[in-house]
Amino acid sequence: MGSSEALEEKYYIKEVNTEKKSIYCHHDLMGELMIPTHKHEKSQMLYSEGGIVHVTTETKTYFLPARHFIWIPGGVKHSIQPNSEDVMMRNLYFPIGLDEDSFYEKEGIYPINDLLLQMMLFTNRWNGNLKKGTRNFTIANAIKAILPEICLTNLPLSLPLPKDIRLHKIIIYLDKNLGETIMFSDLANRFGFSERSLYRLFQKDLGMSFIQYFTIRRILKAIELLLEKKLSVNEVAQAVGYNSVPTFSNTFFKILGQRPSDYLKGIEILKK
């Protein structure tokens, strides 16, 4: 069986779009380390437990940690890569009408509050098409309806993909040295740029400065390390280049909306 044929067999290609007006529900362990690039007509709400999931669209790589969900509008091509086959994925695929809230048109990652978490867990016993007029459809549709009300913070848990090959090499270098103190002038020197030209390249290609990019990348790595639970918050801070825990905690809060210790407590709630 060819790869395109194999892809056709997958539920997210074969079954999600079979009934245009239904809400499609799917809960399962990932079971694979890569869901290749695909798209569907319905918008997808993806919530994961037990690990980290990278979702790559045509312009960005999103980093989906536990206790958060990603909203992927219909028609957006994306691939999904968990850090483990044991990640539990909870998916709801919604049909979106023409005159609905603009929330549904934008990709984004949002924290999941206790109300939303309980509603998502309530759908755990369902799989497949939930048909309009049924009790289960009404409950799932209520999840969709409250999202614009409660999801007011689209978190910057994504990084743009570099298009310029020179910048791609710099990004690989930064990834390998997240715990080091990297001066912008030294980085420019190392890769044969003037500071001014490298600054322009970051802005033009990625739409952000070096410091914005490096800060988000460090915090994404910190989330990964916190979830592994092998290091203390202090050790995680040092591993991603912060000598001061308060500075690390403040930066983490600016990006995730909560302190590292509070984030870990939220993860523990999922296990109870």
Ordered list of secondary-structure elements with their pairings:
Elements: H1 3-9, H2 11-14, E1 23-29, E2 35-38, E3 43-49, E4 53-56, E5 60-64, E6 68-72, E7 78-82, E8 88-94, E9 108-111, H3 114-122, E10 128-130, H4 135-150, E11 158-160, H5 165-176, H6 184-190, H7 195-206, H8 210-228, H9 233-239, H10 245-256, H11 260-270
Antiparallel strand pairs: 1-8, 1-10, 2-7, 3-6, 3-8, 4-5, 4-7, 5-11, 6-9
The helix/strand series, from N terminus to C terminus, equals HHEEEEEEEEEHEHEHHHHHHH
Low-confidence segments, given as residue ranges, are 1-5
Work out the radius of gyration: 20 Å
Average pLDDT for all residues: 85
How many DSSP-defined strands? 11
Structural class: alpha+beta
Strand content: 15-25%
| Number of helices, counting only DSSP H or I runs of 4 residues or more | 11
Biggest sheet features = 6 strands, antiparallel
Question: Shape, please?
Answer: globular
The neighbouring-strand order within the major sheet is: 9-6-3-8-1-10
Roughly how much helix do the residues carry, as a percent range?
A: 40-55%
- How far is the first residue's CA from the last residue's CA? 42 Å
How would you summarize what this structure contains?
By secondary structure, this protein is an alpha+beta fold. It has helices spanning 3-9, 11-14, 114-122, 135-150, 165-176, 184-190, 195-206, 210-228, 233-239, 245-256, 260-270; strands spanning 23-29, 35-38, 43-49, 53-56, 60-64, 68-72, 78-82, 88-94, 108-111, 128-130, 158-160. It is 43% helix and 20% strand.
